[in-house]
Amino acid sequence: MTKRHDTSVTPFLMFTGKAEEAMEFYVSLFAGARIEEIQRWGAGEPGAEGSVKIATFSLNGQQVMCTDSPPVHDFTFTPSFSFYVSCVEEDELDGYCSALSAEGKFLMPPDNYGFSTKFAWVEDRFGVSWQLNLP
């Protein structure tokens, strides 16, 4: 196998009807975040017409791809994959905690767990996991 330096690696999130809502929510949280491209399922295609076939958005320079999968699978998101957000100020971490935990849940509520000043692990309303850290 040839190892290439120009091969890209991008996180990919699979939703079943909530991809656009999730992207809009995520880009609303981070300064400079944006939805870069959305391709939609058309009439007669496997996905619900108008839903996200494939999309790309960026969060603080990190590209993320997502889709609305036509079939519902026996699996969903797991906390073993998460977005790790290193915060600069405590009020930033608290704001992310508040927004991401709304209709979601804390896996580890905000606290000092000994490895940082303040840390929280949140599963948002879409089932995506976020680790929020204040070093």
From TrEMBL:
Gene3D superfamilies tied to this protein: 3.30.720.100, 3.30.720.110
Domain of life: Bacteria
Domain (PhnB-like) ranges: 8-132
Signal peptide from the UniProt entry: none
UniProt-listed InterPro entries: 3_dmu_93_MTrfase, Glyas_Bleomycin-R_OHBP_Dase, PhnB-like
One Pfam match: 3-dmu-9_3-mt
PANTHER family hit by this protein: PHNB-LIKE DOMAIN-CONTAINING PROTEIN (PTHR33990:SF4), PROTEIN YJDN-RELATED (PTHR33990)
Protein name: VOC family protein
Gene source species: Luteolibacter ambystomatis
